[in-house]
Each structure stands twice: as C-alpha cells, then as structure tokens.
Write a structure and sequence with these properties.
With 404 residues, this protein is α/β, with parallel strands linked by helices. The protein has 3 domains: 2-61 and 106-174 and 276-348, FAD/NAD(P)-binding domain (3-Layer(bba) Sandwich); 176-272, D-Amino Acid Oxidase, subunit A, domain 2 (D-Amino Acid Oxidase, Chain A, domain 2); 357-403, no CATH class. 35% of the residues lie in helices and 27% in strands. Helix 1 (12-25) packs parallel to helix 8 and helix 8 (305-325) packs antiparallel against helix 9. The longest helix is centred in the last third of the chain and has 29 residues, at 330-358. The structure holds flavin-adenine dinucleotide. Flavin-adenine dinucleotide binds next to helix 1, strand 7, strand 10, strand 14 and helix 8.
C-alpha cells in the first residue's frame, strides 16, 4: 500500500498536522494517520493549561497572526484563569497576573481528527507502528493484523518516547535530568479555599523535587492536580506518587483544598524538558518530527500544547510546499526555529538556573524565592530571566555554599 503522507501519533502535534494538511491538500494527497490508542487523545495525559492568545503573542511573537492562531472556540475551553501563584517550600506565596485557560483537550483533539477525516484523510486508531526500514513502515492493527505502507513522507508525532525518532537516527541521547516524571489526578468536590481563577504551582523537596506540582482549575469544583519529579533530584524513598500524596495531604495550603476531595481519574506520564532536537528532518526517509517527539516543549514549565500547534501547522505547510514546489523538507526546521527557538532557549536557560539553585534543596529555593516579587515571577512565566537572577548568576556557586 502506498500513501503520500503517514502521520504516526494523534496527540496535539499529529492531530494538528492531520487537520491542517487535510484542509490544505483536499484530494490532492492520500493521508493515513494512525495511533496506537483506541480513542486517540484519550485518556487526557495533561494539565490542559494554555496561556491566553494575548500571552501567547508575547511568548511567541514570531508566530504569524499569533492572536488568531492561538484563539480557541469557547466550546474547547473549560475555564478561564487570571493569575499564577508560586508557593515556596516555606509557604511564601508570590502571585502574578497571567491570563490563561484550561482546555477540554480531549474534545479539541477529537475535533482536529474529525476535520482530517472530513477532508478525506484515513484515520486508523488501535494501530501501533512497530518498524520502519528501507522506506517501508510496518504497523499492527488491533494487536493482530500486520500491514506495511510505503509513504512518501512520514510525520513522527509519536510523543516523548518516539520510535520514529530512534529509527531515523534523529533522536538525541539525553540524560534523565531532561525528563520530568509526572502523575496527575482529576479531583472534584474541592475545599472552600479553592479558587478557580488561580493556577497554583508548588515547589519543594516534599512536593516536587526538581520540578513543581500544580492545581490547574477545570471548573468551579474540579481541578487537574499533579506533581512532577526529576530522577537526579530524588532523595531517600521519594517518588512521584509520594510527592502528589504530600501535596494533597501534607501541604498546609493545598491540603485545605484537596484533602477530602474525590479522585475521578489518575494518569501518569513523562515530559521532556531538555532543549528541542537539533535535527528534526531526515532527508533520506523524508521524515519530520513534531511535538514531544522532537522535544518541542517549553522546558521551564513543561508546556507542550502551544509548540505542538505551531510545529504541527508549520509541518503541514512544509509538506504541501515540498509536494507542490519541491521546497526541501528542511524548510520545516528553519520555520519552527524561526518562530520558536528563541523562546525554547530562554526557557531552557531558566530551567538550568533553577537546577543550579535547587538541586532539590528547599533552603536554596526558599532563599531565592524570598528575594523575588510578583514582577520577577511575571518575567519567569514569560520565559525571561529576572534581572536579579542574572545579577546573581556569576556568584551562584559562592551563594549556594553560603546558603546550604
Ligand atoms: C501530566 C502532564 C501534564 C501536562 N500539562 C500540560 C499543560 O498543562 N499544558 C501544556 O501545554 N502541556 C502540558 N503537558 C505537555 C503536553 O501534554 C505534551 O507536550 C503534548 O501532549 C505533546 O503532544 P504530542 O502530540 O507531541 O504527544 P502526545 O500527546 O504524547 O501524543 C503522541 C501520540 O502518539 C501515539 N503513539 C506513540 N507511539 C506510537 C506508535 N508506535 N504507533 C502509533 N501511535 C503511537 C500515542 O498513543 C499518542 O496518542 C503535560 C504533560 C503531562 C504528561
């Protein structure tokens, strides 16, 4: 079986490529999109938080028509938020205004897939890609039927453990500090202290060694509640389940909201928080990597939905130009770098700074957070290093020795 384009994976990245490409190409291209899940997009493994279009236009100023591009129809928004609160290990709270919303990510993901189908693409759920060699891709459908396709172009949108990235040699070997292990509950019947307009982030050894834990409102009574940890920062018998349990039961502020609430659903996952891959196009196999498969994530916060949307859209356009005008597929890489690389670099710089001060130690995080205010945190959530932090950087080693 021959197809023009094979899309592997239908999370936000693959579903964006599918919808845009199918719309642009109509019947000009045969598009096959596969996902190993029986219902692509579900279960939703995500906090679902998105900055508002205005915030996105500031964060990614090089995305054309950013305000329009990042606008979602209200049916895909479960709630709007207007603040982010950072909680230090010793409960200092720093709040900053930040307009955002929580997506109905599963519903939006399904909508994108439906657009793809409407414009003629073939979508096969319960279909796992198991091999890629000499221009042929092998997949297994419903755990039994083995099929081979010969695509002209392959889109690897198969997430953080992308096999397409490995098979094409585009994957870069990464140390485990570049991954956050996460666990999240959807919790309902929250306590009276719950504020559905406030996104809360908690720092500290007990709640999120090397990362942060969160309460992201979904509506007046329900929130995504999660914790992230990084392996090099784990001490003793700490793990991600304990971190989440501590947030719910031990943290003096969070427990007032969460202790006694009901868990509706639990998921776990891994978020790549290293820099994006340097090479995201394999010219030999005509493959491009999109989304988590290419580590296109805002590494300071673990935000991957907006980059997936941008990269997915650029990928669709690049494929069309390649087919129609023979513009090399590397155009995809130049375009996403033009629109997002600056932000990825700033975010990674912030993450490295966080690593330097914390190394999982509460005393250091507390010392630095005591010196930060709302405007500094506003810089952080916009992927900018606050001036105080830049000033402290050259003395960090000495400071760290004094603080510990
Ligand atoms: C708990 C958690 C909370 C998060 N919170 C946020 C947040 O609040 N805001 C934000 O912006 N980002 C958040 N992220 C990050 C965000 O979810 C990801 O960056 C985003 O999902 C990346 O989309 P993707 O399409 O690249 O990958 P994925 O969503 O992982 O999709 C990959 C798809 O590929 C399929 N697949 C994998 N291998 C194969 C195969 N061999 N064959 C066929 N199909 C395959 C999978 O089934 C899956 O559907 C969070 C992540 C986690 C885990």
């Amino acid at each position: 079986m021959d197809v023009d384009v094979l899309i592997v994976g239908l999370g936000p990245a693959g579903a964006t490529v599918l919808a845009k490409l199918a719309q642009l190409a109509g019947s000009e291209l045969s598009i096959l999109a596969v996902d190993q899940r029986s219902q692509p997009g579900f279960p939703v493994q995500c906090g679902e938080f998105m900055p508002s279009p205005e915030e996105m236009a500031t964060l990614m100023p090089d995305v054309p028509d950013a305000l329009q591009f990042f606008s979602f129809d209200e049916q895909f928004i479960s709630t709007h938020t207007d603040r982010i609160s950072f909680f230090s290990p010793k409960r200092k709270v720093i709040q900053t205004p930040f307009q955002g919303y929580t997506l109905h990510r599963g519903k939006w993901n399904t909508h994108l897939i439906e657009i793809g189908k409407k414009y003629g693409a073939e979508v096969r759920p319960s279909t796992c890609v198991v091999g890629m060699k000499n221009g042929k891709v092998t997949f297994v459908q419903n755990d039994s039927k083995r099929t081979q396709v010969t695509p002209r172009i392959v889109v690897g949108a198969d997430g953080v453990s992308s096999r397409i990235a490995k098979w094409t040699g585009l994957a870069e070997k990464r140390p485990n500090k570049h991954f956050v292990i996460v666990k999240q509950h959807v919790m309902t019947d929250l306590g009276t202290d719950y504020d559905p307009t406030d996104v809360q982030m908690f720092f500290g050894e007990k709640y999120a060694p090397g990362a942060y834990s969160w309460i992201i409102p979904k509506n007046d009574n329900t929130a995504n509640v999660g914790a992230g940890v990084r392996l090099p920062m784990l001490k003793d018998d700490m793990n991600v389940s304990k971190a989440l349990s501590n947030l719910i039961n031990v943290h003096s502020t969070a427990s007032r909201i969460l202790n006694g609430a009901h868990i509706k659903q639990t998921i776990a996952g891994v978020v790549p928080v290293g820099p994006p891959y340097q090479h995201t196009v394999d010219l030999k196999s005509h493959t491009i990597l999109v989304g988590d498969a290419a580590c296109q994530v805002v590494s300071s916060v673990g935000g991957g939905i907006p980059p997936s949307m941008v990269a997915g859209s650029i990928a669709a356009n690049a494929i069309i130009r390649f087919i129609r005008k023979k513009v090399p597929l590397t155009d995809y890489q130049s375009q996403w770098q033009l629109q997002m690389l600056k932000m990825f670099k700033s975010a990674f710089k912030l993450r490295q700074f966080f690593d330097k001060i914390s190394m999982g130690r509460d005393s250091r995080i507390q010392w630095y957070m005591n010196r930060l205010n709302s405007s500094d945190i506003n810089n952080v959530v916009h992927c900018n290093v606050p001036w105080k932090v830049s000033l402290a950087m050259p003395f960090m080693r000495v400071l760290n020795r004094i603080i510990t």
